[in-house]
Amino acid sequence: MNVLLALCVALAVARGSRYCPERMIDSCHCTAERSKQFNRQSVRVKVVCDDADLTETMQPSSLPNTTVSLDLSSNLISRVAPGAFHGLTALRRLDLSNNRIGCFSADMFLDLGRLSKLNLSGNIFSTLPEGLFAHVPSLKALHVGTDYLFCDCQLRWMLSWIRSQAVRVGNESVCVYPTRLHGLELHSLQEQQLTCDGPLELPVLQLIPTQRQLVFRGDRLPLQCTASFLDPSVRLSWSHEQRPVHTLEHRGLYVEDSIIHDCCLITSELILSNIDAGVSGNWQCHVTSSRGNSSIGMEIVVLEATALYCGAERVSSNKGDFRWPKTLAGFMAFLPCAKSSSGSAPQVKRAWSRPDSAPQEKRAWRRCDHTGRWAEHDYNQCSYTSQFTRSLHELTQLSVNVSSALMLAQQLSSLTSRAALFGDVMDVIFVTHLVERLTRLVDHVRELADHVLDVASNMMAVEEHVLWMAQSEARACTRIVQCVERIADLTLSANTTGISKVSVNIALEALLLRPDALMGLLCTVEQRLPLLPPLADSSQHNTLLNFRCHTLNVSGSPVGQLSQSTVAIASIHFPLATRRSVQNSTCKLQLIVFRNGKLFPCTGNSSNLADDGKRRSVSTPVAFTKLDGCSPGSPVQPVTVALRHFSLGVDPTAAYWDFDLLDGHGGWRAEGCHITGSAHNTTTIHCAHHNNLAVLMDLKKVLSFPPYPGEFLHPVVYACTAVMLLCLFASIITYIVHHSKIWISRKGWHMLLNFCFHTALTFAVFAGGINRIKYPIICQTVGIVLHYSSLSTMLWLGVTARNIYKQVTKKPQQPQDGDPAPPHPARSPMLRFYLVSAGVPFIICGITAAINIENYGSGELTPFCWMAWEPSLGAFYGPVAFIVLVTCVYFLCTIIQLRKHPERKYELKAASEEQQRLSDVHQGEPASGQCHGGCPGLINPSTLANEHSFKAQLRTAAFTLFLFTATWTFGALAVSQGHFLDMIFSCLYGAFSVTLGLFILIHHCAKRDDVWHCWCACCPGRRPSNACHAHIHGHAHKLNINGDAHTHCHLDGGKPVHCACRAAGQNHVTCLTPVSPCCAALHTQQLLEDETSAHVLLHDGYRPAVRLHRCSKPVRTKTRRQRELALRVPSGADASSVHSSRANSPHAHICHLAHEVCPHEALTLCHHHHMCCAKDELLDAGESFLCGKLAEDDLHHAHIELHARRQSLANQNGILKGNALYPSDSTGNIRTGPWRNETTV
Fold first, then answer.
1. Structure pTM?
2. CA distance 48 to 74
């Protein structure tokens, strides 16, 4: 059925749209209906263009020819052109009401022979010309009501036409002028009453400005006169002191020509320029016509420059807008009261009143004192401009008694249902006055209680600033609340044991109870939908508040009621039973809950109160509790209230409203009230006072942000934490997988891995669980883990600082001559480091949790998973401060030691027996006179325990401590501060966390060549057997221990030094020529295990014991030729890798050491660093390799020759037997190779 009805409507609309042209404007619409004459298939079209802001009538061609009704009302049409409706022969109804049409002519209605109804009311015309309706013979209904209709002799024709045509004239068509016919209906007049005799009365006669004007010499003042244009005989003229005024340019007088507006108004303007003393006096505008004359005037006073006066001023108030003119000192200025904005109906009613009964014009006055300042003023005679304020003011003037109170309450309730539109402070004051008067009669008329509660509930919809001003001016809000609290006292009696009131914003419950019969009472306020739908503008809420109470045990909690019900906003728990309760005593219990705190504005200086100078605002409903009437001596029972937040904020506090504060204006106090718990959007408070209770919070810091701290942190926290964790775990995995190939001490390895692990644990738990306050167990776990991992990380940094200091201050063991070398010391256990760095935090966390597990988790002041403030001082912040202090002391002592002993640059291994023998062999070799005693200060790279120097380790540890401390601090601030600040600290946390992760990855991995070799070996497509070649720039010949240190040496005088090194044993090499200092510094004990042995032949016997290793790094820069062979120093006896970073490798200090040991030879010894041969220049000769081409800068200095190992010269222990220039093999023979200057053993 519904489908058929919809189809019928659609067909009717589609059929009607056929007769409505598409060129019609959008604001117009037309409808079509079947004609009542069934013998014709004709359609009637109705076009409605009301309130479409049209300034002229529509073109007839834009309307259908079958239009029978045209509505052009409530537009801006001021003129109707002749023939405006030409062609609309079927038009029967025409509505031109409420426009600005001032004159009509008969040609306007051409072709409207069928027009039967015409509405011209509400326009600005004052008369109608004769013969106006000559083209509308079928006209039967006419409406010509207007505020300016002048009933005189010019309308006599209309009376005759009305009676002859039997036209019905609307009742609103009444005469306004002249005064003797004012208010009479037009169709009831007699022709003899319509005369043109008597004084001229004009609907409009106005002079601007209207008041006396104070001007100075030289000023310019325009005057404008406007009058009704009743007929063409109306003229306007000016006079000054009864003398006609015309244009006099030499005096600055200009009279403009009169202008006629809309055929109903005529205007003339007089301009006074360059005013002098002669302008003073009375100026008048004269209206002359065939009917009579009229005039209006004003006074001009020309002042000297020294005259005192009050300047022009505009005053806007609830009584209207007043423009006060300049007023001479000591005089008073008067202005007529502004017209009300209530509409045209009241104005018409006053216009119809008889002139003799019309009240005198009401005026406002203002006095200018003798000093030229505005003083007293009086607006009492003027009415309020707002319709609400006028209506409420009229109600306050009525007498209130038992018989009239109920009707007055109903009217007041109806007016306040639109309280959201109240904008004047007097609205609230008037309502307060009426509520107080009605409350006094509640005990006589019980029905008034409901109306009083409804009015108070409606007033909570008023804007907060209006309520605040009303409270400040007249304590209006406090008086309304006190009236609501008195309702229970006035209504409860022996016959009434309980009342319950329901409204939109206030719920009231009052009971008569016997405390000895109840163990407790729990009342919950819930929201429910009203039985009838509310008005659209009645309130901002569509739900009603009502109480639901039931008895329970004393141990009951109101928090569970709010958590179980989503519509509950407050829950109140009363433990009524006490030991001192008197049997059969009766108490009067009153409960009130206000939806918000609008009726509790604090207007005074409240800096010492709970709201902290208005910084805090009410963020929950306000719950009022009152228990009185019990037996004397009964103690006041505390009350527990759970309130649901309607606004988000920070810094909560429980408070109660004290009416006596701030000179009776009231204020919030916190004494005796405290917060006992908070969960999600519910706060539980415990208060010893029975009063209006609420939770105050700082709402300005959150605005419209999500709940604080929220379920998620700022996105930058998660993103940057993820980057840091990737860097840390990359470092951890690298050092675990390639432990045996990375050149780092055993202690350093353990410390680095533990620091990275605990750092990752700290910030992973922080990002993932710091805001899990909804789950108490998880939140406590997060607090414990954060406490432990943070302390452990700081302790591992402290242990690292101590280890650096101990290594710097450790003295090397040097055995006496002839004494056997000390045995290799046993590895120092790492257990003590783990006991300190892991055991101490575990003990601290265990003690803290054992004392009170509630020390961990979230609280009211700490809405995040950490620790309570007091326990954290001794369990975390104190130990951390001590650890940082001790670590900094270690750093300072290390710096002092390094400055005192500059030769202590690297951490050295304990020398083994084999290394001690080798050292003795080299110490026995002659220095050949090159170094003047040798270079004893140079470091053997194979004895290094860590490739980083002490300074580099110190800088790394200090910077890591700073980054970790800063990241932890900014993370804590990001979750503890309010909005805006938390975003700033979250960004700072992200920046420092990423910096910490990248610093660890770059310094401990990316800058180490040994790590690069390990990464390179793990790359797909690469195998350990495949040589990886380091890319070294052809002109920057650097080759350190990792393949990039500098080893090329020269003798004095710039002559190149040739170092020939031959494989002498299983893991050692020996020099074939006298050793220079830098060659000795580069001497090592290990050769390539599985590849061909090699020796390097340099001119004049220079012999660095180096190992050729092919390892390519993708990040190294390539020469223009091809990748070159890198020289790699083999690992020591403990199988640790001997790679090093470029910046901190021992070979980076060789030249520096040469300066210290051999300053006179430093220039020549370290003139060139190293040399290498390109891979493509290697010549393969069986198992022999020849470097036939060197770097460009070294072609004239040296050449390198590589040969396969022919025979071993080492004994069974791998130690060289002898130190001759050409050592012999086991048989004592020495062989020479096929190349010049080559000797093969």
1. 0.48
2. 11
